Amino acid sequence: MLRIDGRVVHPGQPKQRALLALLALSPGVPVALPEIIDALWDHAPSAGARNQIQVYVSRLRQQISAIPIDTHPAGYVLDLPAECVDLIRFEHAVIRAGHLIRDGDLGAADQVLCEALRQWTGRPLSGVPGVYFERLADQLQERRLSALEQHVHVRLGLVERSGGDFVELTHNLRPAVTANPLHEGLRHGLMLALYHDGRPAEALAVYREGRQRIVDELGIEPGPRLRSLELRILRGDR
């Protein structure tokens, strides 16, 4: 979604939207014409691809004149501060949270990760067509899940430190695991929260359900981290 001065702007036809998305992913950095062509035509460009790109750029310049698209010897560049792009704000926040975690400041890391995850309002690049953008959206979604997993373990650490209960954490985690049943990191976090909350039977049920999904859909056993936690729960190790 593109917002200019609080107003949502719809940048035209599909390939025009795709071009704007590609430039916005690297604000201030020139994107070469061959890269643009490969992304917009999935490595099978039409004969007039370069001319069509010039048309798209011209139309975008008319629609979003507040954000210049500059011509560069290598291609085109969106003249936009990096912090105006939600994905880049997200990535910067995740890096900052990593530093805070290493410094032992889980409270500040929790706040930073909360803000980072607020940048997401749905599947990335929705409405942008093409195989290139579908694959990129999958990669970005994995980055979001990685940040969510990191946030879960920060919250686990905070609850353990404070001696609080894990009810709210398990309540918030269950929908995330349901939505991403093959993501072992989130499942590990839910199992750990349930176990620390004195609910080992529920934690083991979460493991068994996950194992069945992983075996059925991927044809493999869960990774060593999940298996190790299952064994730990069975033994009653703290």
Any overview of this molecule?
The N and C termini lie far apart (46 Å). Helices cover 65% and strands 7% of the residues. The protein has a three-stranded antiparallel beta sheet with strand order 3-5-4. A two-stranded antiparallel ribbon has the order 1-2. With 238 residues, the protein is mainly alpha-helical. Helix 7 packs antiparallel against helix 8 and helix 8 packs antiparallel against helix 9 (200-218). The mean pLDDT is 90.
Indicate the mean pLDDT.
Answer: 90
The arrangement of helices and strands along the chain is EEHEHHEEHHHHHHH
Q: Give the helix tally.
A: 10
How many beta strands in the DSSP annotation? 5
**End-to-end Cα distance:** 46 Å
Instruction: Determine the strand fraction and express it as a percent band.
Output: 5-15%
> What kind of sheet is the major sheet?
3 strands, antiparallel
Low confidence ranges: none
Structural class: mainly alpha
Compute the gyration radius: what is it?
A: 22 Å
Give a topology summary:
Elements: E1 2-4, E2 7-9, H1 14-24, E3 31-32, H2 33-41, H3 49-63, E4 69-72, E5 75-78, H4 86-102, H5 106-118, H6 131-162, H7 167-179, H8 184-196, H9 200-218, H10 224-235
Antiparallel strand pairs: 1-2, 3-5, 4-5
Helix pairs in contact: 1-3, 4-5, 5-6, 6-8, 7-8, 8-9, 8-10, 9-10
